[in-house]
Every structure is written in C-alpha cells, then in structure tokens.
Amino acid sequence: MRRAPLLWIVVCSVAALLTVPTLFLIPMSLTGGSTFQFPPPSWSLRWYRNLVEDRGWRDAVMVSLQVAVLSTPMAVAIGTGAAFGLMRLGARLRLIGAGALSAPLVIPNILIALAIYGMFLQMGLSGTILGLVLGQTALAVPFVLIAVLARLQGYDRNLTAAALSLGATPATVFRTVTFPLVLPGIVAGGVFAFVASFDELVIALLLQSPRTVTLPVQMFNAVVEAADPTISAASTVLVVVVSAVILVAQIGWTRRSEKRSGSGA
Amino acid sequence: MTTTAVLDVGRAAPVRAAGRTTGSRTATALLLAPAVIASLALFVYPLARIVVVSVTEPTIGLHNYAELFTDGYTLRVLTRTLLVALGVAVLDLLMAFPYAYAMTVCSPRVRAVLFTIVLIPFWTSALAKNFAWMILFQRGGLVDEFLKATLGIDYPLLGTTPAVLIAMSQVLLPFAVLPLYASLEQIDRRLVDAAQGLGATRGRAFRQVYLPLAAPGLVAAGALAFILSLGFYITPALLGSPQQTLIAQLIMARVEQVLDFAGADAIGIFLLIVTVAMALLSRWVSRRATARKEAAR
C-alpha cells in the first residue's frame, strides 16, 4: 500500500465519486423551501411528513410494495424451478437453455417495456396491477435463475449420493442437504428480484394509470412535472434503508468468515 | 415432482444421460415449463409482435426502417447515443481498473470496505442517484458554483450531454467494477513477480504480463457498461436536454407523445440489433484476448 500512493489517491477519488453525490440528498430532504434550491434556504421535516401523509406518495409506496411482493415469489418459484430443470439437461442443452431464459438481461429494458406495453394495451392489461406484476416478473426471473444455477453448479453431488447411501429418503435429502445448500442462491436471487422490481421505472412509466403509479414513477413525475421536493425525502429513505441492510449484511458476513478462518486474519 | 428432481440432481453427471426414465423426463419438463411459458408469453411473443407491427403499420414494407435513415434525426440521435456509451465505457474502465486492481492487492479488511462502497450505489434506487446529480448540477448548485469560483466557467451542467456522461458513468460504475474484480482476482500474481525476478522493470512486467492477462476482463467490463448505456432512460431524461436526446428518450417520446408505435418499434428493433452486434463483437474480442493469453503460456 505504501509503495503506490498514486493508486490509492485514484481509489479514494473513485470511492468518493461512488458515495458522496448521494449524500447531498440528506440536506436536500430537510429543506424548508418548496423548490430544489441548494443549499436549502431553511430547514424542516415537512417533506418527510408529506411523504407519509400525502395520498399520492402513500399510494405509490403501497403500489410498489404490492407489485414487488407479488412478483418476487413468482420470479423465485419460476427461476428456481427452471434452474433445477436445467441441471437435469445435458451440458450443451443447459447452456443454450440458460442463455435463452436469461436473454432479457442483455436486451435493453426500454425495448422489453415497449414490447410488453404494446401487447398489454391490446389485452387490456395496461394500467392494472396484474400487468405490472407480470412485467416485473418477466424481468426478475433471469436474476433468480442465474443466482440459483451458479449455486447448483458449485454443488457437490457426492453429498446427495452420500446421504442416499446412508439411508435417507430423497425427500429428506432435499430438505436437509440440497435445499440448505442452494438456499443462499435462492435468497440472493429473491432479494435482487425484489429490489429490481421496486426500482423499475420504464415499464411502470408506460403501464401507469392513475391507480397504478409506482414509487419510481411518482418520483420521476415529482422531478419532471411537479418539482416536488418530497422526492428528496423518498430518495433519502431509500438510500438509508439500502445502506443499512448492506452494512449489516457485510458486517455479519465478515464476522462469519473471520470466525470460520479461525482467530487469524 | 420434487422427489424425482432431488434424485436426479443427486446422480453423477455422466451417468445421468444414459439412465434417464420417462418419469424423470416429465419432471424436467414440469420444472422448466413455467419459465418457458413466461418467456414465450412475456418476452418472445411481445418482441415478435413489435417486429411484425414495425413492418406492417401503417402499410406493409420497410418504410419505418427506411425513415430511420432518411429523417436526418434518428441517425444523429443514434450516433450521439453510441458516443455517450463509448464515453461511459472508457470513463468507467479508467476508474474501475485501478479500483478493482486495488481490491485484489489490499488487506481483507480494506477489501470489505471497498466492496461495501461499490455495493451501496449498486443497490441504491436509480432515481435517487440521478436526482442527487440533478441537485449538484443545477444552476446555482454546488458544481455550478464551484466551476464559477475556481475556473471562472459559467456553464451550468444540468441539461447538457457532459452531465449525462458523468452521471451515467457513476451509476454504471459498479457494473464495471464487480465483473472486473472477479476477473482480476483470478490472475496469478506470481507471474508478475516472476517477470520482475527475471529482470523486467515494474512497468514492463505490468505491460507485458499483467495487462494481457487482464485484457479479457477489461473488454467484458467495458462492453457491459457500453451495452447498459445504450438503453439508459432515467439519466438522459432527468439530466439531459430535450434538444440532445438519446435513443431511449426518442422511443419513449414516440410512444407517449405521438403514439407512433410502429415508428417506436422500428427504433427499438434497430437498438436491439446494435446491442446484439456490440455484445457479439465484445465476446469475439474477449475470446481472442483469452486465446492469446492461452498461447502465451
């Protein structure tokens, strides 16, 4: 570290670029004014109160939660099933299948949104919660599939064979060996699916109706149409929640790996 | 279904192909069916549908595509989009390479900190990040005041392409750092030490040993940033100017304002072709770099 001061100057600048701009959301959210003027002319908690009390913002949070809560389990079930299914195919077919099923990841979201919007408009699903749930599920399945597949591919099959040879029934093997080993992949995929759905803008923007405004759409409109500072309170809440979850997970993970590698580190 | 699934997962891979029963084949089909149906209904069919719409409305023919090349506007937007994407890819590589490299040589504790610093913006709401840039770039904002005070430049960044470029690079940076770190971590550092032990200078060992080994990872990370930039909507919509739109804004505007679905579909398909071409190109370059790496061994 001492040998390359230049490297560490660059690293610190990059770290600052990644984190510092977002920090300005916090003072912004405490503004007493009703514009995006920065630094704020006065201080207050009025935009946090507005976030909780205003009908539009409250509804947007509820719609987003509802969509994410409905689409995540669907994506987890579909993606996990597909990952197990793919593992039963030959190596070549598995590769092709995984590629085809995770294609939505590579294709620009704007195009998927456009395609789904056109179809849903025809089917009368535009502007419904069901439409949003289906759209978000389609985008989320690949995340789950990839996470579970990665976990399954690293899975040592001898463990199952050993458990079976020791007399466990297949169901017991699944419950006590396979499932616990694959669970981290399912959880990671599920978390990713939830966050991706909660943060998705383009599909939600196209499919919106007055009753199905999601939080990202409400935030987008707050900037583009209304210049509503409540967005800074909403952004701050999102950033703080995400940061807290990641910090706790990181600390837990570091502790565990330190414990596992003995007292040394 | 689960029971047979477990049994089959448990079987060793080579044995499996030979000893498959009809029952297990049904189970495989049942496991895959929901994903295949979802993919066909929500992905393949809608995409096929817009391809059809783009060549049949208002009349059959390729005029929607011909218009892209002749309206004198779409091509300019596409060129601008490609240039911004290229700029983002270059900026992100310039920042991600030293950062990811540092992650491979530091202590585990520092690595955990650097990891956390990348993960937080990775998971943070895209709207929150872009809105933060809007506050900084606006007229009278901190960046504007800073530029005026130090360099005497009166150039509010909000509503300009440089603002889009900077913000997009920041938003996409984790997508470059994470795969690049995964790839650099695989490099055997003893090779660089060996080169130096054999008398190469540090610079030469880096250029002739480390850089070729890192090339596939660099290409992949740069390509990812490039491809993700192509379809970006939030950043240009919030920070860019209506006079300098990028292609995603053009698609949204066609649909939302003009209700010209066929035109939007044609632009979308065009974007898809460009994206796929770029993805294939990067894979080819990356493969060649890997092949050269193998040959060098």
TrEMBL record, chain A:
It is found in: Cell inner membrane; Cell membrane. It comes from the Bacteria. Residues 61-249 form the ABC transmembrane type-1 domain. Gene3D superfamilies: MetI-like. Pfam families: BPD_transp_1. The chain crosses the membrane at residues 61-86, 93-117, 129-152, 173-198, 231-253. This is Putative spermidine/putrescine transport system permease protein. The lineage of its organism: Bacteria, Bacillati, Actinomycetota, Actinomycetes, Pseudonocardiales.
UniProtKB/TrEMBL annotation, chain B:
GO terms for cellular component: plasma membrane. Its main location: membrane. Coiled coil: none annotated. Keywords: Cell membrane, Membrane, Transmembrane, Transmembrane helix, Transport. Residues 78-282 form the ABC transmembrane type-1 domain. GO terms for biological process: transmembrane transport. InterPro entries: MetI-like, MetI-like_sf. The chain crosses the membrane at residues 29-48, 82-101, 113-137, 157-181, 209-234, 266-285. It is a multi-pass membrane protein. SUPFAM superfamilies: MetI-like. It holds the Pfam family BPD_transp_1. It is found in: Cell membrane. PANTHER family: ABC TRANSPORTER PERMEASE PROTEIN (PTHR42929:SF5), INNER MEMBRANE ABC TRANSPORTER PERMEASE PROTEIN YDCU-RELATED-RELATED (PTHR42929). Belongs to the binding-protein-dependent transport system permease family. CysTW subfamily. This is Putative spermidine/putrescine transport system permease protein. It comes from Pseudonocardia thermophila. The lineage of its organism: Bacteria, Bacillati, Actinomycetota, Actinomycetes, Pseudonocardiales.
